[in-house]
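Lab notebook, design round three. We kept the backbone fixed and only want residue identities now. Task for the bench partner: fill in a sequence for the structure below.
Input structure tokens:
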């Protein structure tokens, strides 16, 4: 059975709709399209498929209500518009879903909700409890209280994180594009739509720097970032055009539309997903080639002898990025020592830890059980 054909057996689907899907080019809500998508999601739910909706649009709706032609640049103004638009958007969804006998629940998340391990588990359990009640959660970033350091940055990333949290069988990102092209179709009429992606390359990311509409924060680059999360977490992801007739039903039926991002076969454990994607890295540890080999090829822990340099300030128990000498991130993990201590230990032997620090709580800078390796 092909991966696409297996979607017909999905038990849990995350659908993400962007601002460009919800609105016309002038910022007004596209009621016809919203109603059509709600009907399709309700019909999925009738098949006993659990549905989670990640919806953008609160700031855009708020901007439209207040007569803004473009989004303001300051964070307080954006937060105010989010507060205005979020209630209106949820009211619309609730009104439409209830016509099909469906109950919805509003879930607002910030990066801080996932950065802390306990809050991450609480968010996971809350979403699973909502699904167990037969309710459709409508999820958005809590833009009213979020600030730059705790923002997801876009709802493409949020939808990928949600898909990983709940172990979804599919993430479907609906947008105003047909999928991923080998070049920008607006500039190259010969651009070819990619049906299936096995690996996201640097050139793909470099060629996908376009932004969304004036009322949105995303673009193809953020969708590729979401795809990287899903592929690593073992969740298939499809980008498709929300203008397609019956787009949700057709994708779940296994029809070859849009672009499919093929995940790795093994699923990540919950702790590994939290380390890899749920947290914000507090610093960086640069390692030498020998340590890189030990981590990537031999599955070893990171020892002091393999550390070259430490960037940033962080405490014990926080998640840090591990970089190879060239600057590429190859892993993330929970640091057993703080930044100051690791700087003192860099390049030293494990047997020297106690004489340098006055105590030795751990032999490793990062234990292999607390490491997520990007390249398996």
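Proposed sequence:
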């Amino acid at each position: 059975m092909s991966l696409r054909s297996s979607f017909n057996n999905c038990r849990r689907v995350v659908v993400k709709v962007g601002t460009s899907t919800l609105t016309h080019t002038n910022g007004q809500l596209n009621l016809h399209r919203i109603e059509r998508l709600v009907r399709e999601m309700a019909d999925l739910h009738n098949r006993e498929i659990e549905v989670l909706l990640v919806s953008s649009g609160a700031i855009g709706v708020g901007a439209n209500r207040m007569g803004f032609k473009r989004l303001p640049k300051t964070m307080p103004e954006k937060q105010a518009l989010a507060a205005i638009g979020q209630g209106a958007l949820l009211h619309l969804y609730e009104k439409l879903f209830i016509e099909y006998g469906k109950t919805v629940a509003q879930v607002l998340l910030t990066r801080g909700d996932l950065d802390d391990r306990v809050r991450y588990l609480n968010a996971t359990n809350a979403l699973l409890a909502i699904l167990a009640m037969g309710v459709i959660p409508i999820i958005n970033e809590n833009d009213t209280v979020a600030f730059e350091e705790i923002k997801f940055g876009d709802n493409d990333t949020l939808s990928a994180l949600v898909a990983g949290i709940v172990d979804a069988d599919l993430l479907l990102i609906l947008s105003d594009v047909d999928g991923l092209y080998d070049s920008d179709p607006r500039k190259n009429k010969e651009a070819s739509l990619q049906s299936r992606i096995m690996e996201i390359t640097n050139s793909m990311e470099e060629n996908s720097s376009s932004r969304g509409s004036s009322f949105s924060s995303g673009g193809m680059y953020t969708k590729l970032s979401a795809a990287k999360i899903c592929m690593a977490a073992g969740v298939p992801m499809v980008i498709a055009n929300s203008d397609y007739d019956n787009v949700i039903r057709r994708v779940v039926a296994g029809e070859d539309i849009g672009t499919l991002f093929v995940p790795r076969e093994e699923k990540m454990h919950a702790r590994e997903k939290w380390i890899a994607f749920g947290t914000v890295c507090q610093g960086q540890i640069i390692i030498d080639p020998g340590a890189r080999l030990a981590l990537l090829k031999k599955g070893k822990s990171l020892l002091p002898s393999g550390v070259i340099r430490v960037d940033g300030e962080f405490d014990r128990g926080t998640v840090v990025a591990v970089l190879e000498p060239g600057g590429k991130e190859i892993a993330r993990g929970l640091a057993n020592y703080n930044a100051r201590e690791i700087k003192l230990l860099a390049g030293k032997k494990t047997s020297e830890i106690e004489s340098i620090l006055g105590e030795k709580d751990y032999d490793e800078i990062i234990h292999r059980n607390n490491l997520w390796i990007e390249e398996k």
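Keep this in mind before ordering anything: The mean pLDDT is 87.
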